[in-house]
Design goal:
Layout: H1 7-18, H2 35-40, H3 49-58, E1 80-83, E2 90-93, E3 100-102, H4 116-127, H5 140-163, E4 176-182, E5 203-209, E6 216-222, H6 228-239, E7 245-248, H7 253-256, E8 264-267, H8 268-272, H9 281-299, H10 305-321, H11 325-340
Parallel strand pairs: 4-7, 7-8
Antiparallel strand pairs: 1-2, 2-3, 4-5, 5-6
Helix pairs in contact: 4-5, 5-10, 5-11
Length: 354
Amino acid sequence: MPPDISNRTRVSVDKLLYSRDVPSIMPGVCSDPNFFETTVEPLLAAGREGDLCEWLKKNGLIAKEQKCPNPKCLTTDKMQWHRARVVDKFNWMCLACKKRVPVRNASFFADFKCELSYALRVIDGWCKNMPLSDFGGECKNKVNLAKRIYSACTQVSEWQLKKIVGDFKLGGTDVVVIVDVFPDGNMSLEVPTTSHNNNFSKRVLCIADTAHVPVRVWASLLDGSNKENSKIVEMVKNHVMLGSTIVTNEMLYPLLHNLPGIGEVISTEALMNLDINHDHKSLKNLETIWATTVEACIHLQDLSTTLAEQHLIELQWRQMYGFMAFPSLIQHIVEYTAYNNPKCPPLPSIWPTN
């Protein structure tokens, strides 16, 4: 049986369960959690296409200026901004050769044949994890278009996560990190169900850093091989910082309790000993912490392995950026576009640098 929890750990666990503070906004990101509703959505109304394009130019989402791409044109003048009978209502035009260039040329929106307003609404929907059906209704073409925009958002989020992979060193001295496996552990009080008669073919290792609100989660599919236990230990060693306090289920406790450099490892069984009158308060709080992750793990059961891995990327990105998802993704789109268009000058960021 796991040892009793030390007084120091009891304080850390109490903080985990009863007094988690909301941290400050991540540096460099717009601090308005209603950024889409207050700033962007008013620009999406019919008749405000010009205002929307100016906002997109100002914030680096489309080009602020354009040179004529016609190799036979000898002019050195910049192309002019012109009203046009196109979906965006404007385009760039060369006064010398009359060559026209779409306003979304070389931008994130270049491959999407839809109104810019629709694309921005879908981006916001991706940030909020809304179902694709919300953007298409009975129109199959619109659903497919929304699916492509969602896929592009996932690509940007994956690029961003790989760029800051060091941030997935979770925990730290006296920080409580929860390690569990879906569906075998203590992530939910009730046994979750799927459309496949509770047959969970995909097991997921989940690690949550409780110093963040919402919790910052790292998750990975397990392959089900007989070497899985050693892989779990390596994953925990690679992603949990020294000095952390680990809370884990009874099955993982024997694997993790002697990890070098970890402050302390306790099982949920020992955690439940803190509960008054056996009211399962500890497990209920763990269930609350894991709620979004459990929902994602259930959803990916019906996906291919590739799509399931993408779904976990989306989960990790959304839980890292939380209620600042939309302005954060807009920032990442600007950076991603500049990175993938080396012939174009870097686009300005819409966020302050200090």
